[in-house]
Amino acid sequence: MTQNNRPTALIMIFGATGDLARRKLYPSLYRLFTKGKLDRFAVVGVARRSLTNEEFQDNVKESIGSHDHLDESKMDEFASKFYYHSHDVTDSESYSVLKGLAAELDSHYRLDGNRIFYLAMAPEFFGTIAEHLKKDGLTDVEGFKRLVIEKPFGHDLESAKVLNRQIRKAFPENEIYRIDHYLGKEMVQNIEVIRFANSIFEPLWNNRFISNIQITSSEVLGVEERGRYYETSGALRDMVQNHMLQMVALLAMEPPIRLTTEEIRSEKVRVFRALRTVEGSDVNSYFVRGQYGKGKINESDVPAYREQEMVDEASNTETFVAGKLMIDNFRWAGVPFYIRTGKRMEVKSTKIVVEFKEMPMDLYNRQEGSVSPNLLVIHIQPEEGITLHLNAKKGQHSGSTPVKLSYANKGIDGLNTPEAYEKLLYDCLRGDATNFTHWDEVALSWSFVDNISEVWENEKEASFPNYESGSMGPDAAEQLLEKDGFFWWPVTNLDVDKC
Length: 499
Ligand code: NAD
Known about the structure:
Layout: E1 9-14, H1 19-34, E2 41-47, H2 53-65, H3 72-79, E3 82-86, H4 94-109, E4 115-119, H5 126-135, E5 145-149, H6 157-168, E6 176-178, H7 186-196, E7 210-218, H8 227-252, H9 261-274, H10 283-286, E8 287-290, E9 292-297, E10 300-302, E11 320-326, E12 336-342, E13 349-356, E14 375-381, E15 384-392, E16 401-409, H11 418-430, H12 439-458, E17 467-469, H13 475-482
Parallel strand pairs: 1-2, 1-4, 2-3, 4-5, 5-6, 7-12, 9-17
Antiparallel strand pairs: 7-13, 8-11, 9-10, 11-12, 13-14, 14-15, 15-16
Helix pairs in contact: 1-2, 1-11, 5-6, 6-12, 8-9, 8-12, 9-12
This protein binds nicotinamide-adenine-dinucleotide (NAD).
Nicotinamide-adenine-dinucleotide (NAD) is lined by residues 15-21, 47-49, 87-90, 120-123, 150-151, 416.
């Protein structure tokens, strides 16, 4: 696919006064603009509130003002390209006005009829908006048209299929960009490079040399003001179905024959197809759920999940999930992929630990702790980098000592940062869908997760809350690995800057 590195487009943001637009989209667009990565463009913000263009532009400037990389002189020029349209997306009338505005801006800014429709709104509106865009002629353009959709893409496989059918009436699969912002993270994108550009790793990347892989994504924050949404979601749907499974796919996929969108996605799909189904009575031996109780974070008392706003006081919603995934193919047979994710945990950290098998003979006496398994640690956030844990002779004594080789990327804090959105927006503008999820990936990951939620929703977890805020989750998550003879490598000791 030919990609224009300085794209031109009209970007329509539905949900323009919302949190996502303000915190991520405007700062990201601004960065692209200041870096000279956008050619001609204009933005139409759509939301219910009534605002003038000037008020909207002031809000946009304000949202950028709280972020770094500011260039005051460019701010006014940037904001002048923003237009506001007050519109209830369920109101059919108003789409014709929107169509007129889009045509006017298209001609004024010479946007070549290219359009991006970014749905930064609650998912129940996605289908309605997509249908209207087609029916009311907003998609009848000379140039490209692309639909960007935020998570969650459905609540389970059935609802995801319904949603997909609705949006597919208006947009073919290759025009749909489903956001998984983890795929915009520098070090998540780096997984492929580390694997496929280093001859020292690829020969070892299989069940002969790797004993297990651990992926942790822990948050210190609780559910905060998102209780209403979270009660219908939980950690399994909010984190595992999308972000955690995407990381598993990138770690486990076969080398693609080419680095094209189609080839990479089809290798990821093959991983999902090889995922061992976990259902019925097996669910609780492969998966552990947790819910945070009260506890201390940074020396301050914090409430239990059940005491949070909009949360049922007897809630059965999990705020933590740990699981063991098996990929039943030649490369990975017998190698567990352990995942864990949760809220109100001890540290905010996303890390991947690849643990290699031990040497056949214990020449240097592992029992004394002088030899440790080789680990490749990929630090996704907040710090970004790679650490390789080796054993070497150090100083006077003749034995072996664990040593670390580290590469620290100069990272910025926060997974869900504008950086990831900046990359993804730019990819979408250029028509590169590699780091967006294809429908086949969504469907397969929902069918995997649905088997687990079916059991958990029907069995109330009597032990909830079962982990203290500020801990690394329930004891059962430790036991999940212990029964296989492994343990979670403590994420705090693996930090790049502690090497
Ligand atoms: P929000 O509630 O802050 O904003 C919603 C926006 O939709 C507002 O601009 C509101 O005016 C508009 N809106 C609501 N009903 C409308 C209607 N009938 N007609 C027209 N406009 C209407 O939500 P948000 O946090 O910005 O999230 C938006 C989407 O992004 C959701 O799907 C969410 O799950 C997803 N998401 C958000 C974040 C985040 O960091 N906020 C992260 C990941 C995914």
